Amino acid sequence: MLKIGMLTSGGDCQALNAAMRGVVKSLAHKVDKLEIIGFIDGYKGLIYGNYKKMTPEDFSGILTRGGTILGSSRQPFKLMREPDENGLDKVEAMKANYRKHKLDVLVVLGGNGSQKTANLLREEGLNVIHLPKTIDNDIYGTDVTFGFQSAIDVATQAIDCIHTTAASHNRVFIVEVMGHKVGWLTLYAGCAGGADVILLPEIPYDINCVIEAINKRSKKGRGFTILAVAEGAVSKNDALLTKKEYKKKKKNWSYPSIAYKIADEIEQTCGLEVRVTVPGHTQRGGSPAPYDRVLCTRLGAEGARAILDKDFGCMIAVINGEMKRVPLEETAGRLKMVDPDDSMIEELKTLGVSFGDN
Ligand code: F6P
Question: Quick one: 17 and 139 in the same domain?
Fold first, then answer.
C-alpha cells in the first residue's frame, strides 16, 4: 500500500494534468494499492486541510486537458513562516495534515516559489518530490520545465497573427510576452515568430538602438517591424536602479506595462504608428503541446520511480534529454536566466535581429 499527497501550486500551465497522470499511472502500474490525497488549490489545501480522496481513475483522460484538476493558488514562500490572519502557523499546519493522512510522500508540481516551500517541508522532515512546472522555464537545475513549450506555441501564434496585419498596415507592433523576470519565453517565441527586435530582461535595452533597428528596416523598404518584448524587459538606465527604486518608478508610470512605455517612446521619437498586443494568460491556457505531454509522461514516470526507490527530497529534472533527480537543496532559491552570451542570441544577431543593446 502506498499513500501519496499531491498538489499543484503557483501560476498554472497547460501540462499540469499530464504530469499528475504520469506519476499516478506509473505508480498504479507498480503497486497493489495506491491511495491519493489531492490537496485543493495548492499549498492552501495542505495548510487548511482542504483535500479530496482520489483514485487512479480520476487521473484518466486528462493527458490533453489544460489547467489543473486540483486547482492552484499562489502562497508566497516569504509568508510561509508568518502566521495567517488567525494566527495559524502554516508550516506546522502543513506538517500536521501530512501526518494526519499518514502520507508516504507529497508530490509538488510547481515553479520556483513552490519549490522553495517544498524544500522547506523537506527540511522539516517530510518526504517530498518536486516536478518543475512553469511557462517561464526559469527553474535552475533542469534544462526545461513543463509548460514552457506549450506557452511558446501560444506566444508564437500571437506573433504570427500580428505579422500579417502588421504587413498590411505598415505599422510597428509590439507583442508583450510573459516570463516574469526572465526572457526564455520571449527569446524562443520571438525566434519562432520571426520578430525583428527581441527585448529580454537579461539584456537591458537602449531605446535608441531599438529605434535604429526600426529605421534600418524602413530604409530597406520594410514597412513594418515586430518587437517581441518580455514583460520583464528593462532599459539600460533602469537596470542601474535598485529593485526598490525601479518598483517605485514603475508605480508612477502612466503605462500598464513595459510594452506601452516602449511604444510611446517609439511614437514620440519617430512618429510611427505603434500597436501593442498582450497575449497575457492565453500563454498559459489551452491544451498542452505534444512536446509537453511527452515531457510530463517521462517526468511523471521518473517521479514515480523516485518514490518507489524512496529517493525523496529531489526535483525530477531534464538534463541532456535524460530524466534525472536533482536534490532540492541544490536547486531551491536559484533562478535560471538567459545567458546574454548564449549562442542562440549570437545566431539571431547574425540574422539581423536586434536585442536593443547595440
Ligand atoms: O510564472 C508564470 C507567470 O505566468 C509569469 O510568466 C507571469 O509573470 C505571472 O505568472 C503572472 O501571474 P498571475 O497569474 O498571478 O497574474
Answer: yes
The grid cell for 352 is: 539581423
Question: Which pLDDT band holds residue 358 (cuts at 50, 70, 90)?
Answer: confident
Can you spell out the DSSP letters for 2-32? EEEEEEE-SS--TTHHHHHHHHHHHHHHH-S
| Residue 276 and residue 293 in one domain | no
11 Cα to the center of ligand 1, angstroms: 6
- CA-CA distance, 52 to 37, in Å (whole number)? 6
Cross-strand partners of 316: 325
pLDDT in tens, 101-132: 999 999 999 999 999 999 999 999 999 999 99
How many domains are contained in the chain? 2
Q: How far is the CA of 8 from the centre of ligand 1 (A)?
A: 15
Query: Which of the listed residues 136, 138, 258 should we mutate to test ligand 1's pocket, taking the one with most ligand atoms within 8 A of CB?
Result: 136
Residues lining ligand 1, Cβ inside 6 A: 11, 74, 111, 134-136, 178-180, 231, 284
Q: Which domain holds residue 135?
A: 2-147+288-331
Contact assessment for residue 39 and residue 45, using Cβ atoms and an 8 Å cutoff: yes
E strands, the chain, in order: 2-8, 34-39, 51-54, 105-110, 128-132, 172-177, 197-199, 225-230, 274-277, 314-319, 322-327
